[in-house]
Records
---
Amino acid sequence: MFEVAELGHSVERSVYKERSASLRTQLLSVQDRLKASPCPVIILISGVDGGGKGEVINRLNEWLDPHYMRTIAFGEPTDEERERPKFWRFWRTLPARGTIGIYSGSWYSDPIAQRVYQKIDDAALQAELKQINRLEQLLSDDGALIIKCWLHLKKDRQIARLKALSKNPATKWRVTEKDKQHLAMYDDFIGVAERVLTDTSTPYAPWLIVEGSDIHYSSLSVGQHVLERIEQHLERQAMNGVKAGEAANGVSSQVEQYHLLDTLDLSLTKAKGDYRKELEKYQGKLNGLARQAQALKRSSILVFEGWDAAGKGGTIRRLTEAMDARNYQVIPIAKPTDEEFAHHYLWRFWRHIPRAGQVTIYDRSWYGRVLVERVEGMASASQWQRAYSEIVNFEEALLAHGITILKFWLHIDRDEQMRRFKEREKISYKQFKITDEDYRNREKWDDYQKAVNEMVARTSTSKLPWLLVEANDKYYGRIKVIRAYCERLEKMLDEHKK
Amino acid sequence: MFEVAELGHSVERSVYKERSASLRTQLLSVQDRLKASPCPVIILISGVDGGGKGEVINRLNEWLDPHYMRTIAFGEPTDEERERPKFWRFWRTLPARGTIGIYSGSWYSDPIAQRVYQKIDDAALQAELKQINRLEQLLSDDGALIIKCWLHLKKDRQIARLKALSKNPATKWRVTEKDKQHLAMYDDFIGVAERVLTDTSTPYAPWLIVEGSDIHYSSLSVGQHVLERIEQHLERQAMNGVKAGEAANGVSSQVEQYHLLDTLDLSLTKAKGDYRKELEKYQGKLNGLARQAQALKRSSILVFEGWDAAGKGGTIRRLTEAMDARNYQVIPIAKPTDEEFAHHYLWRFWRHIPRAGQVTIYDRSWYGRVLVERVEGMASASQWQRAYSEIVNFEEALLAHGITILKFWLHIDRDEQMRRFKEREKISYKQFKITDEDYRNREKWDDYQKAVNEMVARTSTSKLPWLLVEANDKYYGRIKVIRAYCERLEKMLDEHKK
C-alpha cells in the first residue's frame, strides 16, 4: 500500500513558495468559517521515523491562525494519566468545537510500537484497533472532522535521512536510540503499519499516505488535504444541520415498548428499627471495604439516576457518611458549562474519572443523553439512539481499566412523587429543592417512563447491570443500595486475593 | 495560644443531635444564598494528628449540599504538579464563585512539616508565610471567603487518641508511621504551629483554634463558625457590591503621568536585506538554544502586549517558526469562558503554565486587567490598582520556580496604526482581523496610553523588566524580539553551566 509514496516526489523551492502562499490564504479563510461551526478538527500526523512529522507540524503551525489551533504531543504518560483508562489522556486534550488540534503522536503510537516489539499479539492489536475505530466513530458522529496523515519513507531513504540528521549538529538531537532500533525493524514496522492503516481507514476517518522524503512536497500535500477535508466537512455540515433539525423530535414512535420498571414491587418496606440496625451494620462494613479498595488502588464509579424526588441525595449521603471525605467526590450533573458544551457530551464525564483508589459518585450522569435530552428534544433522534452503544463502550473502557462500576435507578411511582413534592414544600431547608420545572417534568411522566425502560433494556449488560431500586420506601431503597455496593466491593476484593 | 483549646470541651450526644439538626438547616439556607453570590468559600481544616480533621470534614460533607461543595485532599505532588510552581496544585483546585472547597491539607502543610523536620530555617519559613499571606490576600480581595480552622489536642490527649485509634481495627489504618514520628516531635510541632498561626492570622483570613478531643464539640464549633463567617461575608458583600459599583470608573485622575513610551524612537528601521539575514541568523540560534533549554527542563513564558495591529501575531510566528511545535503553546487571550469567569482573574493564566522544558507564549495576558479592563471599566478602580502588585507577585512566583519570563510591549504610533488598519482591509486573508471594535478602541488612545505607561512603570522590576519594542518598522521590531529571547536564553544557559 505504500508504493505510491515511494516514487521520489519532490517540489522545487520556487514552486513551493508560490503554492504555499496561496494555500495559506485559503487555509486562513476556511479556518475563519470553521470557527463559527460546531465542528472540532483533529489532525493526526503519524508515520515512519525521519518522515518529517515535526517539520510538517511546524508548517501547519505557520500557516494556520494560532488563535484557534493547538499542537498536542505525548511523551511517557504522567502518573495522573497512568492512573486512569488509557484514552483519558486523549480526551483531556480534545479540541473544542470550531478549533483545530494537531496531534503529534496519538492513540496509534502505542498499539503500533507494542505490536512491533511483540509485546502484544495480533488479536490484542485487533482489539486495540476496534477501540480506536469506536473512538473515531463517536467523535465523528458528534461532528468532529478527523484527518489522519501517514508520512512514509522508503527504507534506503530512511537510512539516508537519519544519517543526514545525525551529521547536522542542529538536528542531531532528533535522532534517538529508539529511531535506530526502529530502523533495524523497518520491515516489521511497515508490516504492522500496513495492517493498522488498512483496519482503521474508515469512511469517517480515512488515512492519507504521503511520501515524506521532500518536506516541500509533504507539507504541501498535507496542507492541501487539510484544506479540502475541512471545506468538504463544512459543506456537509451545513446540509446536515438542516436534517438534524428535522429529526430533533425527541421520542421516536418506532421504539419498542419495554416494561421492566413495571415489574418492580414498590410496596417493599423496611421498619425504622431494622433500618437503623442495618444501616449501621452496612456503613461499618462499607467503611472497611472502601479502605481496603483504596489501599489496593482500586477505584469505583457510582451512577445515580432516578425520578425527581426519588431520594438520590439522601441515599448518596448514607454512603458518603461511611467513607473518608478525602477518598470520594460527588459530582452533581446540571447544565454544562460553555467549555463542556464545546466538546463531545462525554467529555465532561471523562473530566471526573477518579484517580487510582478514588471514588466518583455521579448524581445524574451521561444517561441524561437518553433521558432528559431525548424527552426534551435537546438531542436529535440519531444522537440519542447512537448514545446507547457509545455509553456501553465508554463504561466498558472504565471496566477494562479495573474500575468498579455500579448504576442505580431509584424508582418511585407517580403518587409517591407528588406526596414528596408537597412534603418538600413544607420543610424549610428542603424548599429550595422544588421548582416549577419539577412539576413540568412530571407532566411528561409517560415519555420519561418509556425512555427509562429503553435505557435500562439497552444498557444493562451482564458486566454492567442496572440495579433497579424500589424506593417508594426510603429506608428500603437506601439499604438496598449500600448493601449492593458492599457486595460488589467484597466480590472485587475476593477476586483480587486469588 | 492553644490554652483555650486544652480545657477538655465536650458536648453530650443528645445536645449534639439537637444542635446539629438546627445547624444543618441554617447551613443549607446560607449555602443557598451563597450560590447566587460572586464569592467562593475556601475552608482549610488543619491541626495536630489525631485532632479529628477527617471527622470534621465528614460532618461538613454531611451537613452541606454536595452540589456546591468539593473536598480537596493532597498527597505527594504528582509529576504534573512538581513540574510547575508550587502553588499551581492549589490554583487548579480553587472553588468557583458561589461554591465551597474544603481543604484537607493545604498550602500550610508543607512549610510546617519542613520547618519541624528542620529542612528549612526560620527565615525560609517566614518567606513561605509571606507568600501564603499574599495568596490569601489576593483571593480575599477577589471576594473569596477564607475560613481556617486549627484542631488542637493536648499532648496527653494526642497520645491517648492515637492509642485508641490503633486499637480499633476500623481506625487503625489512620495511624501512620508519620503520626508516631510527629508525636515524638509534639513540642517542636506546637512551637512551629504557634508561629505559623500568629503570622498568618490576618484580618482577611484569621485562624479559629478548636479543641479536637471531642468530635461533637469540634464539629459543632467548626460548623457554627463556618455558618457565621459565611453570613457575615454575604452581608458585607451585599454592602460592598454597591461601593464597587461607585468606584467602577476605570481611569482614575489621581494617577501620576508617566511618559516612558514617549521616549521610544519609532523611526528606527531595518532594511529588508539586513532583516532577512538577521532573521535567519537568530532563528538558527533560537532553535539551538530552545533545544538546550528543553533538554535541561527549563521553561519559558513569553508575554506579548501591544497596540492593535502592532504586529504581535507576525512576531510570534517568527519565533515559533524556529521552534519545535511540540515544545510550545501559543495561548491567545480573548473573552474568558464561563468557567474562567467564575474564578480569580489569574486562574485562567495559571491553567496554561508550562510543564518543565515547555514554552508558553501568551498573545495578550494578565495585563488585560490593567489595560482593557481598566479603560473599559470592566474592573473597578480598586481591582486594577491592586492588580499591579498581584501581577508582580505572580510573576515572581514563576521566576522562583526557574521559569524564564520575557514581557514585550510592541509599540507603534497612532498614524501607523491607521495605515495598518487600512492595509488589512485590503488583503483578503487579513480582513477578518479588523473589526469595528478596533476602531472604537482607537478612539480611546489617550486613555490606553496612560494605562500602558502606568503598567510599564509599575510592573517593570529589575528581575522582570518590560521590553519596549519600537515596532513602527515590523522588521526592526521582530529582530529586536527574537534577539532579546536568544540573549535571555543564552544568559540562563550560561548561569546553568556555572
---
Amino acid sequence: MLHPDRLFPADPESRNIARRLYAEVASLPIVSPHGHTDPAWFALNEPFADPATLFVIRDHYAFRMLYSQGVPLEQLGVPRLDGGAVETDPRQIWRLFARHWSLFRGTPTRLWLEHAFETVFDVTERFGPDTADAIYDHINTCLSRPEFRPRALFERFNIEVLATTESPLDTLEHHGTIRQSGWKGRVITAFRPDPVVDPEFEGFAANVGQLGTLTGENTATWTGYLAALANRRQFFKAAGATSTDHGHRTALTADLSRAEAEQLFGKALRGVATPAEAELFRGQMLTEMARMSLDDGLVMQLHPGADRNHSPLLFERFGRDKGCDIPTATEYVSALRPLLNRFGNEAGFTLILFTLDETSYSRELAPLAGVYPALRLGPAWWFHDSPEGMRRYREMVTETAGFYNTVGFNDDTRAFCSIPARHDVARRVDCAFLARLVAEHRLDEDEAREVAHDLAYRLVKRAYKL
Amino acid sequence: MLHPDRLFPADPESRNIARRLYAEVASLPIVSPHGHTDPAWFALNEPFADPATLFVIRDHYAFRMLYSQGVPLEQLGVPRLDGGAVETDPRQIWRLFARHWSLFRGTPTRLWLEHAFETVFDVTERFGPDTADAIYDHINTCLSRPEFRPRALFERFNIEVLATTESPLDTLEHHGTIRQSGWKGRVITAFRPDPVVDPEFEGFAANVGQLGTLTGENTATWTGYLAALANRRQFFKAAGATSTDHGHRTALTADLSRAEAEQLFGKALRGVATPAEAELFRGQMLTEMARMSLDDGLVMQLHPGADRNHSPLLFERFGRDKGCDIPTATEYVSALRPLLNRFGNEAGFTLILFTLDETSYSRELAPLAGVYPALRLGPAWWFHDSPEGMRRYREMVTETAGFYNTVGFNDDTRAFCSIPARHDVARRVDCAFLARLVAEHRLDEDEAREVAHDLAYRLVKRAYKL
Amino acid sequence: MLHPDRLFPADPESRNIARRLYAEVASLPIVSPHGHTDPAWFALNEPFADPATLFVIRDHYAFRMLYSQGVPLEQLGVPRLDGGAVETDPRQIWRLFARHWSLFRGTPTRLWLEHAFETVFDVTERFGPDTADAIYDHINTCLSRPEFRPRALFERFNIEVLATTESPLDTLEHHGTIRQSGWKGRVITAFRPDPVVDPEFEGFAANVGQLGTLTGENTATWTGYLAALANRRQFFKAAGATSTDHGHRTALTADLSRAEAEQLFGKALRGVATPAEAELFRGQMLTEMARMSLDDGLVMQLHPGADRNHSPLLFERFGRDKGCDIPTATEYVSALRPLLNRFGNEAGFTLILFTLDETSYSRELAPLAGVYPALRLGPAWWFHDSPEGMRRYREMVTETAGFYNTVGFNDDTRAFCSIPARHDVARRVDCAFLARLVAEHRLDEDEAREVAHDLAYRLVKRAYKL
C-alpha cells in the first residue's frame, strides 16, 4: 500500500536523487520537541482503547472532514459537554468513518492513517467500507498485546525525545512517574502559560490565584506574579522542559513601563480589562517571557493566528479543539517590534515563530529570521503540515532565511500513532525539495545530504537544546 | 494547432497518467451552473453578428489587454455611453486585434480563443496579422449558417444545462420563450438580487419600488420587502433557477435584530445610509437570503472582492464591466461569522464561496469549508480561471478541504464560444493535478479516475441541485 | 563549478527547450536601468579594494545572514557610526565568511557569488574554509590588474547601459567626469527625490533649502518648490537620466487641491506634520512627480513596502541599508487610485510598480497593469530576486498581465560583480518558465524564443526609453 517512492518527484533523475537523500535520513531517530500527546500514556502504559478512539474520536482532522459533509459529531462519538447521547459503539463509528474515507483523498490525514495502518499494524489492504470490519478486528487485537502499549510503541517508533505541553498549573505528576519508573523513554514537558497570562482565558483570575498557591508567591501583585512565573518555569525545567509555548491570537508584543504593566495586570485580575487591554497584556507577557528566557535558557515558541472556536454551537456543545479553529491573517513586522527591540539581537535567546498565514513566509518571517539572531522559523504548521504546505514553506523561506534559520520538523500532534508518519512525510518532502535543487544544479548532492540530515535531526536538537 | 497533450505535465510518466484520466472525462456533458450568456440568444436563435462582435467587442479579457498597451477602446468598437464615434467596421477591429495577438502569449484568453477557432470553426492556421482576414472571412461565413446559430452550438457543445444570471426585476421573458419553444436545451436563470439589496446600486430605491410593483407587496416596509424577495425567488425557481448569486464588495455578513434591520432599510430607502450602513445592510441581506435559502432550497453563491469600476474615466465613458474591476484583499473568517453562526451548521443549506484573493484559499476558505457543513468552495474564479490559477487552487485547497468540499467548475462567462474551451482547460488542469498525485503515489489511479469524473461532472450537479 | 544546465527544469524535454531558448539570449548585452553602483568607480576607475570589501562588507545579503546566526557585524568589518572598533583585516573577514558559507545553501547569494568567482575571477574550486585563503589571494591579485578595474569589468560584462541612483541634491559630478573622459561606457543617473519629498527624511527642511540654493528657486513656497523639482529633473535628464525612483513606505498617492497641498507643504517644512500628514504629503508628491513625468518624459518607478531600519540598535550602531529593512503587506488598489484617476489612462506616461508583497502580484498588480495604459510591472524585487521568487512572479503575473506589461529585469544592486550573475539567473529562470509553457503546449517555441529575447533585452529598453 505504501509505495517506497511516495512524495518523491516523478521525473526519474530527481526521483533518484530524492531516493538517495531519503535513504540517509529515513531511519534517523525521531526528535519531537512540540506536541500534545498525553503523558499519562507513558506513565501508566495502559493499552489504547480501540481503533475508533485511537484514530477518529480524538483526531479533529478526521472528524471535522466528516462533519463538513453533514455527519453529526455525535455519530462519530465525540463527547458532548452536556452528556447528551453520542454513539458509543466504536465499531459503528469505524464503519461510518470508512464509508467516508474517499473524502480524505489528497489530504495528509489519508497519508498519516495509511502509514500508521501499514507500519504500526501491518495492515496492507486498502481501507474502506469493505475492509473496515476486518481492519477493525485486526487493530483491536493488536491493541491488546503488550507490544502495542505506549512505551513499546514509543521505542518501536525510535523516538529519541518527545515533548508534551502542560499548563503552569499542572503538577507534572505523570512526568514524575515516568522518570521514576526506570523506563528509559525520554518524555519531557513544555511550559504553556496561556491559562495564567491571557486575561480572556477561562478562569484567568482563579488560575493566577492557583499559581500563587503552587509557588508560595503573592500573585495578587505584579512582582509576585512574575516571581511565580519564573518559579514555575524552573519547576518545568527541572522536569526536563527546554521550551515554552505561546498560543496567542496575534503576534502582538509590548514593552510597557513597569507602572503601565502593573496597572494592566490589576485590571486583568479584576476582570475589567477591555479586549484591547487584554491583548496588550498578552503582548507584554510575551516580552516578560522572553526576558525570563534569557535568564533560564528556555527556548520560546510563538504560535499565533488561530481564531479559536469559530462556531459557538460547536464550542458550547463539544468544547475546545474540535476542528473549528480557523486561521486568520497575521502580521509580524510591527507586532514583534517591541520584543525584538529588546531581545532580538541577543544571540543567547531563541524565539521560534510559527504561522498559519503562508503569506508571511516570504514577506515577513524569512526576512526577519534572516537578520535577527534570536529568531528561528518553526516548520509548516497545522493546516500546512502537509506535502504541498511543506513544499511551499521551503520554496518561500529558503532563499531569504536559508535552511539554518529553520528548526527542523515538529509534529504538534495528539495522535500518537501518526508521529512516525508525520516525520516521514516531512523527511520525504524535504528530500524532494533538495532533490530539485540538486537536479537543477543549485546545490551539490553532498551538501544536500548534509542538509537533509540537518533538517531531519540536527537542527531540531540544536534549536530546542535537546 | 491544439496539441492533444496541452496543459499536461511534461514528465512522460505523469503525462501518461494525465492522458488516461482526461480520456475518461473529455467528452462528459458540460454543466454550466453560473454564467452570463444572454438568454435572448437561445430564445430568438438568431445568428451571431460577426467575428469581432463575437470575440472582441464584448469580451473584456480581450479588449482590456489591448487597452493596457495603449489601444483606445473606441478603436476596438466598444460602444461609448455618450454615443461618441467608435470603430464600426468589424474587419478593422479584427485586424487591430490580430496585430496585438502576441500580447496574449501565456494568457488563458489565448487558450480559449484558439480552442474556439479550431473546435468551433475548424480554423487550423495560427491567428495573426497575416491570417486575420482569411480567418475573419471563414468565421463570418460560418456564422451565417444554421449550424452556428446559438441553439445548434449549444447542442454541439454538449451542454446539459446552462444557467444565466438575472436581476429580480427581470421578467424572464426569454427563459419563458425557450421553455415554450419545444427546444430541448436546458437554459435556466439564477437570482442575482444586487440591484434591490445594495443601497449603493444605481436606482436602489426605484428598484425596490419596482420590486413591489412586480410582486404586489408593499416594499416600503421591511416586512413587505422581505416578502417581495421571497416571492421573487419563487418566481425564479419556477423558471428553473436552483441558485442565487451575490456580487458584494466584501464578504461581510450581519445578524441584526429586526428593529435594527428595519431602521437600516429605512435609511437605505431614503438614500441617507452612510457607506458603513450600506455595507452593513448588504451584510444583513446576505443573512436574510441564507434564511430564505433554507426555506426554498436555492443554493447561495457569494462572489466578493472586486473593486468595481476602478477608473472613473472608463466608467463614465463606457459603463460597467469594461475590464476595470480590480480584486482586493478579502477577509472571510470574521466577515462570515454572523451568517455562519446562524446557518453554517445546517447541512440542508449550501453557501458556495468564491474569491479573487488567492491568499484566502489555504488560510481561510479551505479551513472554513473543511468544517462547516453549509460551506462549499467555488472554483478558481475570474482572473484565476486559468491553468496556473487552477493549479494553485487545487494545491492550496485540497489538503485541508479535500476534493468533496469543492463544487466542480463553472465558466462564469458571457463569451458563449469559450464555454467548451474553459471547461476543457479545467478538466485538463484537474487531470494534471491528479496525475501528479498518482505519480507521487499519493493517490491510486482508480481513485483519481473517480475524482476526475466528480470534478468534471458529478460535483457540480450535486452542489447546484441540477 | 557552474553547471551549464543550472536553473533549468530537470525533465529532459523541458530542459532541452530551456537550453535552446537560453542559447538565444545568453550573450545579449546587459541593460541595467536601476541599481545602486557608485558612479565614482567609473569616474575614477580605481582598483577595487580587496575580496572582503568587494563581496562581504558592503553586501547586506551577505552579512545579514551571518548576523542572523550570531556573528557580530563588527567581526565582519561593517563600519560603526561611532567609529568603534571593527575587524579591519580583510583576510580575517574572508575566513569568517568562508566558515559560514553553508548558511547560503539554497539562497541566491550563493548563486551570485559562485557565478562571480568563476566567470569574473576564474575560480573553479568550491569556496569554503579550506579554499578561502587561496581564493582570497587569487582574487586579490586579480584586483590589482588593470583588467579588473571598474571600466574594464563594465566592458567585459557587456553592459550596454547602467543606471545609478542619486539624490536631487547630488551634483552628478562623477557622471560628468565619465561623460567628459572619452570612455564609451554608458553610465546614467536616476532621479530619487526621497530626501526632498519625504517630510520624515533626515534633514528634510534643510534638504529643501539646499534644493532652492541649487536651482535658484524659492523653495520656501509651494510654487518655488515644484519649480525647483522640475528644474532638477531637467538637470538629471541632461545627465542622461530616463527615470525617477520613489522608495516610499506605502503606495499611497493623493490628488489634493492646490490649497491643501500648499498648506501640507508648509507644515512639513516647519517640521510640524503628523505622521499621517507626512504620509499624505508623500502621496501628493507622487502625483506631482507623475504630472512632471508627463512633461519631461522621465519614466516613474515606485518601490513601496519596506519597513526601513527595523532594529533601532542596528540603525544607531551601523546606519541605513544594513540588512534590516523588512517587507510589509502593501495595498495598491486604493492607494494608487488618486494618481491613476489623474494619469493612469495616459499612454504617454509610464509608472513602473514594484512590490515586496508577493500576494499583490495576482490580486492587484497584474489586474491593474492589465488594464491601465500607464502601468507596467517591475521584475521580482529584492528578497524575490531569486529563482523561486522569479518563478512565482511569472506564474502569478503572466496570465492576467501578459509578458508585455512587464519591463524585463533589473538588478537593483550595489554589488557590481554580481550584475552578470543576476541577469544570468533572470534569463535562465525566464527560459525555464517559457520552456514549461512550450512543453505543456501553451506556447509555440518560435514565440517563446521571441519572448525570451523581449524579456532579456527589448522590453527594458522600451520601458525605460534606453
